Amino acid sequence: MNILLDRVTVANKLPSNAREVNYNGIIGWSYSINCSLGNPYTFFAFNDGSLYQVLVLFPAVAGQYGTHNAHLFSDGRICFGQTLGLPTLEQAYAKSVLWATGFSTMLRTGTFQLSKNNF
């Protein structure tokens, strides 16, 4: 992970509310969005040593949904598919926004409408 490169990405690609934070001993980026359906989300994106992960901080979803039906691990991290993470912070941010819309749709309809290939 290159923290300087991440700071440039945050300044140029993430929402203006993105902040560098230490969350449970892990340095990463917290940011909030409203998905296209209007639901609020707060995320924490971080590098796990090789790939970027995104943890859903709000709403509290950890342990409440299955990995396959909600694209969400039991610890609250978004499941991005077979890669188990994404190579860049920018990709992790973009996919978290996409996930938020898919998750919000699932809450309304019972089905995660987006293809697993999007994650």
How would you characterize this protein structure?
This protein is an alpha+beta fold and 119 residues long. The protein has one domain (3-118). The chain contains three helices and four strands; from the N terminus they run αββββαα. A four-stranded antiparallel β-sheet has the order 1-2-3-4, with helices on one face. It starts with a helix and ends in a 10-residue tail after the last helix.
Number of helices: 3
Average predicted local confidence, pLDDT: 92
Q: Tell the overall outline.
A: globular
Structural class by sheet pairing and helices: alpha+beta
Q: What's the number of extended β-strand segments?
A: 4
Tell me roughly what share of residues is in helical segments. Answer: 25-40%
Please state how the strands of the largest beta sheet are arranged side by side: 1-2-3-4
Main sheet summary:
4 strands, antiparallel
State the distance separating the first and last CA atoms: 21 Å
Gyration radius (Cα, Å) is 13 Å
